[in-house]
Amino acid sequence: MLNVMNLSKSFGGIHAVQGVGFKINKGEIVSLIGPNGAGKTTCFNLITGFYSPSSGSVRWMGKEIIGLKPY
Ligand SMILES: Nc1ncnc2c1ncn2[C@@H]1O[C@H](COP(=O)(O)OP(=O)(O)OP(=O)(O)O)[C@@H](O)[C@H]1O
Ligand SMILES: [Mg+2]
């Protein structure tokens, strides 16, 4: 259902998210955990389209959604 591939986001010299990838199947409930500053919120902002990634791809139901508006 959701396929995140090699997602990266840098803010200047800060690599907030680097090479993140995972798949979530229909019906699965998944948590994203990590210490403060690990990049969790940035990862969600990339998936939801509030930020554009430095590299990588997000597919929802097989369709690329990077580049679409958040709504
Ligand atoms: N808009 C931004 N501009 C510059 N740096 C940012 C920005 N947003 C996040 N960062 C940096 O990216 C890194 C990841 O931050 P992020 O907020 O994604 O972490 P987090 O896992 O959500 O942390 P927390 O558990 O504190 O919520 C941190 O080093 C943070 O300072
Ligand atoms: Mg956060």
List strands and helices in order, with pairings.
Layout: E1 2-11, E2 14-24, H1 40-47, E3 55-60, E4 63-64
Antiparallel strand pairs: 1-2, 1-3, 3-4
Please give a structural write-up.
This protein has 71 residues and is mainly beta. It has one domain (2-64): 3-Layer(aba) Sandwich (Rossmann fold), CATH 3.40.50.300. 11% of the residues lie in helices and 41% in strands. It has one helix at residues 40-47, and strands at 2-11, 14-24, 55-60, 63-64. A 4-stranded antiparallel beta sheet has the order 2-1-3-4, covered by helices on one side. A hairpin with a 2-residue loop joins β3 and β4. The longest helix has 8 residues, at 40-47. The relative contact order is 0.30. The protein binds adenosine-5'-triphosphate and magnesium ion. Residues 11, 14, 16, 34, 36-42 line the site of adenosine-5'-triphosphate. Magnesium ion is lined by residues 40-41.
Defining key terms:
71 residues, 4-stranded antiparallel β-sheet, globular, binds magnesium ion, 41% strand, mainly beta, Rossmann fold, binds adenosine-5'-triphosphate
